[in-house]
Amino acid sequence: MTSTVRTYLGRLLPQLIALTIIIAAISIIFPGFLNLQIQNGRLYGSLVDILNRGAPVVLLAIGMTVVIATKGIDLSVGAVMAICGAVSASLITSGHSLAETLLITLAVGILCGIWNGILVAVLDIQPIIATLVLMVAGRGIAQLITEGAILTFNDPGLIFIGSGSFAGLPMPVVIWLVFGVLVALVVRQTALGMLVEAVGVNREASTLSGVFTPVLLIAAYVLSGLCAAIAGVIAAADIKGADANNAGLWLELDAILAVVVGGTSLLGGRFSIAASVLGAIIIQAINTGILLSGFPPEFNLIIKAAIIVFILVLQSPRFRAAFAFVSIPRVAGKPTEREAK
Amino acid sequence: MKQKYLPLTATILIFLLSYALCVAQYPNMLSTRVIGNLLTDNAFLGIAAVGMTFVILSGGIDLSVGAVIAFTGVFLAVVLEQTGIHPLAAFALVLAITTLFGAVMGAIIHHLEMPAFIVTLAGMFLARGMAFVLSIDSIPIKHPFYATLKSLYFKLPGGGRITLIGGLMLLVFAIGILIAHRTRFGTNVYALGGGTATAKLVGVPVASTTVRIYALSGLLAGLSGIVFSLYTSAGYSLAAVGVELDAITAVVIGGTLLTGGSGFVAGTLVGILIQGLIQTYITFDGTLSSWWTKILIGLLLFAFILLQKGIIRLSRNGRQPA
Amino acid sequence: MQTSSDNILSAVRIEKGFPGTKALDKVDFHLRRGEVHALLGENGAGKSTLIKCLTGAYRRDGGSILLDGAEVDPRDTFDAQRLGIGTVYQEVNLLPNLTVAENLFLGRQPRRFGMVDTRTMNRKARELLAEYELDLDVTRDLASFSVAIQQVVAIARAVDLSGKVLILDEPTASLDAHEVAMLFRIVRRLKARGLGIIFITHFLEQVYEISDRITVLRNGQLVGTRDTSDLSRRDLIAMMIGRELAAEIHSARTEVAEGRLRYRFRNYGRRGRINPFDLDVRAGEVVGIAGLLGSGRTETADVLFGAHRADSGTAEIDGQTVDLSSPRAAIRQKFGFCPEDRKTDGIVGDLSVRENIVLALQARRGWTRPISRAEQNRLADQYIRALDIRTPDREKPIKLLSGGNQQKAILARWLATEPEFLILDEPTRGIDVGAHAEIVRLIESLREKGLSLIVISSEIEELVAYSTRVVVLRDRTHVAELGGDRITAHQIVEAIAAANEREAS
């Protein structure tokens, strides 16, 4: 058991170190950064802010991790966020109960996931292309629902999801913590995680071993859709309205970046949800840090770019080959002739 | 008819059909004025889409386009405001920067063997970030030379105008078509899209072709940025967000296979025109909401992906016998 | 002894090794001007490796290559092409999305004023192809033509670029009789022009039709070079599959399997892959499948396991009709399948040995019923021990293991599901001698435990050692079945040869 914990922490070590360095650096420049205080039973402080502001990207990154592990990608999550935000706002303003609103909204997210999953798994369309369709059309659908305006609401229940608190923590943080732990548990306590990794590494061999590949692929996109739905509700609740134009805009890129920072390869296979969550928090910490430390926020994107390039170099097959003293060199094409077809 | 012309034909038919439908409802839409505006309004998108067509034909993707356009606009605005450089010199300078920018991305994609998607994503962040660093405000461009350039146009019968930028887009398309079909580089681009491994085996210089493809895309994104700054007379770092998506969409609706290797630069022009037409129609209608543009374009995208999927399947089964 | 001027290409004592195997062991090969020289051998014999060494695709470890009497050292395939050695592969290595003319002139398109002169290029392409009796629209995409025409275009390009030596690697594998005839007319014409042509194929009648001499490789070693006219089919097959070795091994058993008849396949097949066949398999029986490369061995395995759905016939287990339309369906019936191409269809490279071993069992149980980590460890350790899988620990990514150990891990994957019907496609291909013997012993012991096994192998002596029955395939059809004391290397070779001769006459 201790060895499992050790390998688990070992996997997260680079992300933890990176996060520590970033937080340390910010707190040197901005001394008040680490301060936490409790007011009215609720925790306040920059660290809590990071966790709170990062909620949508963390949620998207959870689903994106699983999709990327299957060797896929989901470009539509930002648009799905907008759709789901719009759905929840329009349901609640038209008099549905909070429970109904949430259930239907999540169902819509799942539906979007099924659409993407069918395009990828059944029609065998490249994931980047398949999810592009919903990425383009999705925002239009969201605007159709809100009829172009920012659809505001004042249902206290729905607003609570965005700005309320539970056990001293802001609701968005509670939601992603609970959901993240839930997904990680389901994935790792069942065989789902291993089967997803197997499909991502070698779809053909997995199918021949009896893995029901299409269902797994669809499930991955459904999870991603569900995550986007939750993120969409939080984003809408946060501003007490559904903004079809801006909700979730470009967040798919941040989510992909979070997964990459988390060390999951874009080529599929091994994944860690916890690492992706850390990746998302790292991104948010950088955002917040730059804002607080008086650096112009303009540097934010440049730093993001630098991080990507750094990680790319680390992950690059060439770079790895050059530094793989220990591992066995890849056998370049052993003579395996396939039988004549 | 040759199968490879099928998507292009479909695109052209869809354009003509929808144009006819528009005209049937609003006869005013059949005027050179509308056509001239269609060209002018979509000039920057069209020029960027030509670069995107080459990238996609080679099997890649370039997400940095919109950010490069914004960077170019801000760069021009700042340079023209703060120095005495002539705009033409500034144009040359910014084109050199964006071309180099594209070339570096191409080199990283090839030499680090990383997916174009993530490399150009980094490029997008970097270019947008550089634009922010230059200025976060929208800076108007008041140089008299801009006014001169904007006043140039070619008058069409019927009151329409082909503006300088509209004409420039057509010229870029013409040159793009020539490059695609009349140069060894063009053939190499198609060859890369047909399969990098095979292309290498047949003797295509994969490294230099990849670098040149992304350099071309950078160059055209820069040119698109110049056109955009002429069109808006300003430079703003938040401008042109998502133009890369519109460009990708135009390329796919134009009949180019997103997996690379098949398609036409001319198709992209029609793709641009279809997108523009939908917008024009919605403006003419006045009651229809703008979101229908996105939904319609998404549907078109889906239809074309399915069409191409079907064609690939057909061509696998029905080869011409010996 | 020939003078060097007879030989356009000579390869002397070529050596090439891969980790764990010796792919070529001091192989000599001489190609004369104006001859068609067939290069034969089963899978893994070293044909491809030799060709890749000749064309610079691989760096050889030792030996020299002489072209036109001068020593050459092609660095890569372009270099070889420039020197005069052109290659055409079974899977046409041209770009399907370019036009025929572009494919012919890629990288050397005629230009005028810096622009490609398409008209001149198309004219030259038509002229070039006219030499090959081909009159086609060179402006069409290559993909719109049949594989045969694509082959000819590839040959035209290779000859136009190189012009001394032409290597044809399985060019006829997917062609019909007319197309083969067309291809052979072209080969004869090129031969008359003085080219040296190396022809790799697994169709023996084509070897006899077109080739002047034959060189046979086996297990990376040269078996010999003979004039085609002096070599009987029987002797050739013996050279290829090593009957002289096999003759020394006694048939393992003379008794017929007495187990209960459990599996009945009737009229089972799939159009375009394997013609309908009947097959009965008893409990405690190993049915060996013999046949030359391309005879439908792998296709038989694929259709039995549902990797390709059968489109005719029925399958019965213990008298009950069953559905075997997908791997999952087959696995439900306690089937297991070790595919031929370990790397693409077998191992899940980045996952650990443990995960690879439990994969099929886990897939059958479904994701909601995970195998506990302790149980996984137990299973993995058990099979690592039982099959002697050499790995430092069970968590090592399987891609880092040697071929033999990967194969054993995939076998373990199926054994962990406690299968009753196991299909092994070339289980001993490309693995070292020690692991080879262990796998043969394992097959024996599984049979004794009452499993039914189908084993495909291109090594006859191996089939003889463990099969209780041998089915012989030819041209995607099951043509003969040998049982009891008829299972000898001699009889199997006879059966394959007889089928070939019938075909040839």
TrEMBL record, chain A:
CDD domains: TM_PBP1_transp_AraH_like. It is found in: Cell membrane. The chain crosses the membrane at residues 12-38, 50-69, 75-94, 101-122, 128-146, 158-187, 211-237, 249-267, 273-292, 299-317. One of its GO terms (molecular function) is transmembrane transporter activity. It is a multi-pass membrane protein. Its main location: membrane. The keyword tRNA processing does not apply. Pfam families: BPD_transp_2 (PF02653). One of its GO terms (cellular component) is plasma membrane. Keywords: Cell membrane, Membrane, Transmembrane, Transmembrane helix. This is Sugar ABC transporter permease. It comes from Sinorhizobium glycinis. The lineage of its organism: Bacteria, Pseudomonadati, Pseudomonadota, Alphaproteobacteria, Hyphomicrobiales.
From TrEMBL, chain B:
Its main location: membrane. GO terms for molecular function: transmembrane transporter activity. The keyword Cell membrane applies. It is a multi-pass membrane protein. This is ABC transporter permease. The chain crosses the membrane at residues 46-76, 88-110, 116-141, 162-180, 213-239, 251-278, 290-307. Keywords: Cell membrane, Membrane, Transmembrane, Transmembrane helix. One of its GO terms (cellular component) is plasma membrane. The keyword Transmembrane applies. It is found in: Cell membrane. Pfam families: BPD_transp_2. It comes from the Bacteria. It comes from Sinorhizobium glycinis.
From TrEMBL, chain C:
InterPro entries: AAA+_ATPase, ABC_carbohydrate_import_ATPase, ABC_transporter-like_ATP-bd, ABC_transporter-like_CS, P-loop_NTPase, YtfR-like. This is Sugar ABC transporter ATP-binding protein. The lineage of its organism: Bacteria, Pseudomonadati, Pseudomonadota, Alphaproteobacteria, Hyphomicrobiales. One of its GO terms (cellular component) is plasma membrane. Its main location: membrane. Keywords: ATP-binding, Cell membrane, Membrane, Nucleotide-binding, Repeat, Sugar transport, Translocase, Transport. Residues 9-244, 259-500 form the ABC transporter domain. Pfam families: ABC_tran. It is found in: Cell membrane. Belongs to the ABC transporter superfamily. It is a peripheral membrane protein. Gene3D superfamilies: P-loop containing nucleotide triphosphate hydrolases. One of its GO terms (molecular function) is ATP hydrolysis activity.
